[in-house]
Amino acid sequence: MEIKRDSYLEQLKIRKDNGMIKIITGIRRCGKSFLLFVLFKKYLLESGVDHDHIIEIALDGIENEELRDPKKCYRYIKDAMKDEQKYYLLLDEVQFMPRFEEVLNSLLRIGNIDVYVTGSNSKFLSSDIVTEFRGRGDEIRIYPLSFAEFYAVFDGDFDDAWEEYMIYGGLPQVVKFSVERQKAEYLKNIFNNVYIKDVVERNRIQNVDEINTLVDILASVIGAPTNPTKISNTFKSERGLNYSNKTISNHIDYLAEAFLISKAERYDIKGRKYVGANRKYYFSDIGLRNARLNFRQQEPTHIMENIVYNELLIRGYNVDVGIVDVFEKSSEGKKVHKQLEVDFVVNQGSQRYYIQVAYDMTSEEKQMQELNSLRNISDSFKKLVIVNGTKKPWRNEEGFVIMGMKYFLLNADSLEF
C-alpha cells in the first residue's frame, strides 16, 4: 500500500535546486523517510536524475553507524560525487550525527549538490536553521496522515473511516494493520519505547515516572486550558509528589520539541493581545493520545477538537485559542464579567477565521453555548462552526457558516466557503 503525500511532495518539488538545505521535520514514524526515500526519490528518477547521482544515508540504521562521525560522513558524500553534474543528498535522521550543522554548512559551499535532511526534534533543527544556516535552511514540517490522506487508502465508507481515525489516528504504519489489537499494541509500544525513550535519553531526565505521569495528565486534558502550576498542584494533592512548576514547564517543552504535543496560546480577541496564564495542549496524533490512556477516555468533542487543530496546522495556518470578555446583567441587574471561549483563532497572512467545534448542536442550549462567543466578536472576519457529521456548509441567519466534519476534512479550501 502506497500512501500518497502529495502536498508535502509538492513542497519538495518547489524547493528543488533552490540553493538551500531542505529540512524535513516531524514526529518519528510519521512518514518522513518514506516521503524522502520513496516518493521524492521516485520523482527525481522520473525527472531524469541518474540513480548514481542520488546519495542516500539513513543515520538511524546500524549499517551507517560509522557515518554518524561528521568527518567520515562528509568524506563519504564527497567520494560519491564523481563528476560536476548535480547530485541529490537524502540524509535521514540527521540528529544522530554530532556537529551536523558543520557538515551541512560545508555541503552548502559545494555548487553541484542539493541537500535534503530529516529530523525528529525541533530543538536540533528549528533553532539551528536560524543560528547556523543564516537563511539557507528551508524547513518543511510534516504530520501524521490527515484524514483525507487516511480516507484515500481506507477500505470502507466515511462513517467507518471517521470512527477508526478518531480512535487510532493517522500514523502510517497503523493504517496498514487490519486487526484492531495490532493497532492498539503498536501505538502503546512506540509511545513507551520510541517517543518517551527518546525524550528521556535526549534530555537526560532522571525521574521517568514524573514525565510519564505528566503525559497522562496532558492526554486527559486535551482541549482544556491548563498550566504548570495547576499540574503541580494536581501532583501534590492527588499523588503527594513535589513536581515543581519549572520542571513541569521544561518537560512540556521537551515533549513539544519531540513533536509529540503542540501548545495553543490564548488570545484576547477584543484586547488584541496574548494571555499567558493558561494554554491548551493537543497531541500531534490522536491515536497516540488514546493509546496513552489505554483507549478509555473517549470524549468525542475533545477528540474532534484535537483533530481539527491538527488539520489546521497541516494546512499551514497559525492557530490560537480565543477568549472574548463580555459583561452581562445578572438576575439582580448587576453587571457580571464573563470570559467566553472561541475554540480557534486561525490566521494566515491577512486572513482570519474564528472556529467553534461542536459534536452536537441539536438543542437550543447547545446552540447558545457554541454561538454566543462568536456573537460577541465585532470584527467582520469569517465565523464558522464545525459539527460532527456529513452536513454540507450553510449560513444561518446571523451569517455564521455551519459545516459538517466530512466537508471540512475532505475539502482543502473548506474555510473559503
TrEMBL record:
One of its GO terms (molecular function) is ATP binding. It comes from the Bacteria. Residues 20-150 form the AAA domain. InterPro entries: AAA_14, DUF4143, P-loop_NTPase. Residues 197-359 form the DUF4143 domain. Keywords: ATP-binding, Nucleotide-binding. This is ATP-binding protein. It comes from Jutongia huaianensis.
